[in-house]
From TrEMBL:
Gene3D superfamilies in the record: DsbB-like (1.20.1550.10)
Membrane topology: Multi-pass membrane protein
Source superkingdom: Bacteria
Residues in the Periplasmic compartment per record: 26-43
Lineage of the organism: Bacteria, Pseudomonadati, Pseudomonadota, Gammaproteobacteria, Cellvibrionales
Record field: transmembrane: 9-28, 40-58, 70-88, 130-156
Full protein name: Disulfide bond formation protein B
Disulfide bonds: C35-C38
Length: 162
């Protein structure tokens, strides 16, 4: 028996929560500090999770479900795009890697908000470092896989009848 819409939204929320807890574990217990693109990916995981939580609590029917699933789908696709860019940067030849930029705190203290956000999405040389991998895939590659699953679930939710 398949889970109903509400249960599936809670599953999406739980998955996003697990991803963020894993990222925090890697940061604070393993000492793997996030680069700007990592932070951006985290933001989109949180956005998808919050949309799913809102949908689970609201338990929408019909068009409302399509709105929530569409918002989750778009957020997941943007996150997947950021992950794909990150993997691309990691696979560039050394001479083509962008220069390392300023730290996140400095960016948000010094630049206007939209300029800081643009720099965050762009990534820098710090993003090219592969600091951890599992089964030959880096953290951004695994995050891309996670976004692909979240996108698939959100798409499926939009097709389902309430």
């Amino acid at each position: 028996m398949l889970p109903n819409l509400r249960q599936t939204y809670f599953i999406i929320f739980a998955g996003c929560t697990s991803l963020i807890l894993t990222a925090l574990y890697m940061q604070y217990q393993m000492g793997l500090h996030p680069c700007p693109l990592c932070v951006t990916q985290r933001i989109f995981v949180i956005v998808v999770g919050l949309i799913a939580l809102a949908a689970a609590l609201h338990n929408p029917k019909g068009f409302g479900n399509k709105i929530y699933s569409g918002l989750g789908l778009v957020s997941g696709l943007i996150g997947a795009g950021v992950s794909a860019r990150h993997v691309w940067i990691q696979n560039l030849p050394e001479d083509q890697v962008p220069a390392c930029g300023p730290g996140l705190e400095y960016m948000f203290e010094t630049f206007p908000l939209f300029d800081a956000l643009a720099l965050l999405f762009q990534g820098d040389g710090n993003c090219a470092d592969v600091v951890w991998s599992f089964l030959g895939l880096s953290i951004p590659a695994w995050t891309f896989v996670a976004f692909a699953g979240l996108v698939a679930l959100c798409f499926w939710q939009g097709l389902r009848k309430a």
